């Protein structure tokens, strides 16, 4: 157990000092279950400092992401209040190592989901849907890792921005949520385009996947939880310069944006 806490502390220090570290699996044998133990211990370090879990995120739910990172299984991580950036808000890149951005879809639960109750249908618990941006920032050198490494590193979670929430029921009635256009713009130029179909074939499939993985890895899904369904495109490097705008647009759901601050003016 101490081993698990020591590994979580290394990753936590790396995040807090924005300093990359070698992959844990370079020196430690890590099973997937132990990697989730390290993730849990890392989230506990955050909550002990007064941060609070606000939801969960899925990773590698799209082929583009799995191919980009050389891994194939979907993973789950925890997002916290301190990772949250307001829509249109600022992200201080000097506090991050080598951030990347990805366009996503977010869900918000009304009532809680009991991951252990087989009759609890996660889709009926969803109250709202929104376009979202995730900023991932692997704590590992060169953004390179094994599946176990990235799970231990809380799935590279660093920051997230959620756009305008819309009622889920009417969005579902009005739109084909399984095939909405997705555009990612960086500094005024389109850098990625795709479809919500990239997310497990349909982002709604993220909901049972979240429930299953939450059950398996002992994560709670309380009322109001935010669920990031995973990137719809490959991730794009966020330059370490102030004044860079990032916009993600999901057709029918709207747009979400951020601007960088900090970092070097010369990049
Ligand atoms: C892991 C996180 C993956 C996604 O949306 O697929 C992820 C990483 O790529 O570093 O958040
Ligand atoms: Mg993501």
From TrEMBL:
Pfam families: FAA_hydrolase. InterPro entries: Fumarylacetoacetase-like_C (IPR011234), Fumarylacetoacetase_C_sf (IPR036663), Hydratase-Decarb/MhpD_sf (IPR050772). SUPFAM superfamilies: FAH. Residues 98-257 form the Fumarylacetoacetase-like C-terminal domain. Gene3D superfamilies: Fumarylacetoacetase-like, C-terminal domain (3.90.850.10). Keywords: Lyase. It comes from the Bacteria. This is 2-keto-4-pentenoate hydratase.
């Amino acid at each position: 157990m101490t081993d698990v806490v020591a590994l979580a502390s290394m990753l936590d220090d790396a995040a807090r000092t924005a300093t990359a570290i070698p992959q844990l699996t370079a020196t430690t044998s890590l099973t997937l279950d132990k990697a989730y133990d390290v993730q849990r211990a890392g989230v506990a370090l955050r909550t002990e400092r007064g941060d609070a879990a606000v939801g969960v995120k899925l990773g590698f739910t799209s082929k583009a992401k799995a191919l980009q990172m050389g891994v194939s299984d979907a993973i789950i991580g925890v997002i916290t209040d301190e990772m949250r950036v307001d829509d249109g808000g600022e992200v201080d890149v000097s506090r991050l190592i080598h951030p990347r951005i990805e366009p996503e879809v977010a869900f918000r639960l009304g009532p809680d989901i009991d991951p252990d109750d087989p009759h609890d249908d996660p889709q009926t618990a969803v109250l709202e849907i929104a376009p979202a941006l995730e900023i991932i920032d692997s704590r590992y050198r060169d953004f390179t890792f094994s599946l176990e490494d990235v799970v231990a590193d809380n799935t590279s979670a660093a920051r997230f921005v959620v756009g305008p929430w819309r009622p889920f029921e009417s969005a579902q009635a009005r739109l084909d949520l399984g095939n909405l256009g997705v555009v990612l713009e960086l500094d005024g130029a389109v850098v990625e385009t795709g479809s919500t179909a990239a997310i497990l074939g349909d982002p709604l499939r993220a909901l049972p996947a979240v429930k299953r993985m939450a059950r398996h890895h002992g994560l709670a899904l309380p009322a109001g939880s935010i669920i990031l369904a995973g990137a719809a495109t490959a991730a794009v490097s966020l330059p370490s310069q102030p004044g860079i705008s990032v916009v993600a647009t999901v057709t029918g759901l709207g747009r979400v944006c951020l601007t960088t601050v900090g970092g070097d003016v010369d990049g």
